[in-house]
From TrEMBL:
One of its GO terms (cellular component) is chloroplast. It comes from the Eukaryota. This is CYP9. PANTHER family: CAROTENE EPSILON-MONOOXYGENASE, CHLOROPLASTIC (PTHR24291:SF134), CYTOCHROME P450 FAMILY 4 (PTHR24291). One of its GO terms (biological process) is carotenoid biosynthetic process.
Length: 452
């Protein structure tokens, strides 16, 4: 579950399991099993027999509501009555489930008082559009930046205002068409082939496979090579750097749900075991990235490399890091490190989630699975895909898009009001108000979409 953008609990697919290409071309793929069992982490579970958690109990939620909202609330926003079991599920389980339940009870906008915070939860596309369009003038990232600054520093993942604009403009040119074509061939296909080889072994042995984990490892390998030219090899080895990445992600997730943000007090971070572990993890991640930057910078300087064309790619190292250093942009190593960390940490889980959900949904729909297989067979004819093939894999792309509609990542977007504002529908928000845009609710709202 991703800290900054809480993830809908992904399905865990137990095998024998295979990729979804046809067995016509066994060199790259392998056959779909006749029998397999699929288990999802959002399947209903038996009621817990554990003692009730003290996290956000009803009395604290009610107290927070009275203190933060007062008696003169003229916002016109209904207040959701969240019980302990609801809030516990909100903080420790599938985030989108209680938010969707409350949307059906209270409508497309409601206020949720959970512990010391209260959120205005938005499930209306017009309101969501208003908040997102006014980012930088009326709204900022707020809680997102607070809980993850320890990891991302000033990276564009959490940067605000002019810094975000400047860093985005610096990084985007590296993602040109020629780069994507090279990376698909050298990185995407090769990493995917390694995963297929491992899955083939699991399939033959009848082993169960956690596909969420495998896809996350796959995307971490891809991003490591595409961004840094660094091979994590996470499908085959346990690396301290990989462990550090997940430790940092978990810490940011926990910070987003802590009742009291004690981690803002530096003295406590030096004595609390959880914070000591997180700090060591971030130090290792930053040290690794800084070493990669220094090594690449030395090569660029030694070779006198400069970008000579708009879609420049270094043949021996086509990574984004190499492009940014060859561009000779005036930027500190710390800023470059934070920007690249934004891609590494925030990027691989989102992509892994999409792959997991798409595979899960296709495995539940044999007709769509077969249609996707037939399209892949017709377009690729047994060869590995290229960037140009995407436009011809139309049905497969529709499957991926539908997967992202049903289970978007992130399922919520967080913003914080900077000034007094009136939302569409005459709903008022005050400065400092946290806004939670439920992408999942919007995608599932009967007022917005029609389920076929």
């Amino acid at each position: 579950m991703h800290c900054i953008s809480p993830l809908p609990c992904s399905p865990i697919i137990s095998s024998p399991f295979t990729t979804f290409s046809s067995p016509k071309f066994p060199l790259q793929t392998f056959s779909y099993p006749k029998c397999f069992y699929i288990k999802s982490s959002i399947d209903k579970k038996p009621p817990s027999t554990e003692p009730t958690s003290w996290v956000s109990p009803d009395w604290l939620t009610n107290l927070t509501r009275s203190l933060t909202l007062g008696q003169n609330d003229d916002s016109n926003i209904p207040i959701a009555s969240a019980k302990l079991e609801d809030v516990s599920e909100l903080l420790g389980g599938a985030l989108f489930l209680p938010l969707y339940k409350w949307m059906n009870e209270y409508g497309p906008i409601y206020r949720l008082a959970a512990g010391p915070r209260n959120f205005v939860v938005v499930s209306d596309p017009a309101i969501a559009k208003h908040v997102l369009r006014n980012y930088g003038t009326k709204y900022c990232k707020g809680l997102v930046a607070e809980v993850s600054e320890f990891l991302f520093g000033s990276g564009f993942a959490i940067a605000e205002g002019s810094l975000w604009t400047a860093r985005r403009r610096a990084v985007v040119p590296s993602l040109h068409k020629t780069y994507l074509s090279v990376i698909v061939d050298r990185v995407f296909c090769r990493c995917a082939q390694r995963l297929v080889e491992k899955l083939r072994t699991d399939s033959l042995s009848g082993s169960s496979v956690n596909m969420e984990e495998k896809f996350s490892q796959l995307t971490l390998n891809v991003i490591g090579l595409a961004v840094f030219n660094y091979n994590f090899d996470s499908l085959n080895t346990d690396s301290p750097v990989i462990d550090a990445v997940y430790t940092a992600l978990k810490e940011a997730e926990l910070r987003s749900t802590d009742i009291l943000p004690y981690w803002k007090i530096k003295a406590l971070c030096k004595v609390v075991p959880r914070q000591i572990k997180a700090e060591k993890a971030v130090m290792l991640i930053r040290q690794t990235v800084e070493e990669l930057i220094a090594k690449c910078r030395e090569i660029v300087e030694t070779e006198g490399e400069r970008i000579t064309e708009e879609e420049y790619v270094n043949d021996s190292d086509p990574s984004i890091l190499r492009f940014l250093l060859a561009s000779r942009e005036e930027v500190t190593s710390a800023q470059l490190r934070d920007d690249l960390l934004s891609m590494l940490v925030a990027g691989h889980e989102t992509t892994g989630s999409v792959l997991t959900w798409t595979s899960y949904l296709l495995s539940k729909d044999q007709a769509s699975l077969r249609k996707a297989q037939d399209e892949v067979d017709r377009v690729l004819q047994g060869r590995l895909p290229t960037y140009e093939d995407i436009k011809n894999l139309k049905f497969l792309m529709r499957c991926i898009n539908e997967s992202m509609r049903l289970y978007p990542h992130p399922p919520v977007l967080l913003r914080r009001a900077l000034v007094d504002d009136v939302l569409p529908g005459n709903y008022k928000v005050n400065p400092g108000q946290d806004i939670m845009i439920s992408v999942y609710n919007i995608h599932h709202s009967p007022q917005v979409t029609v389920e076929i």
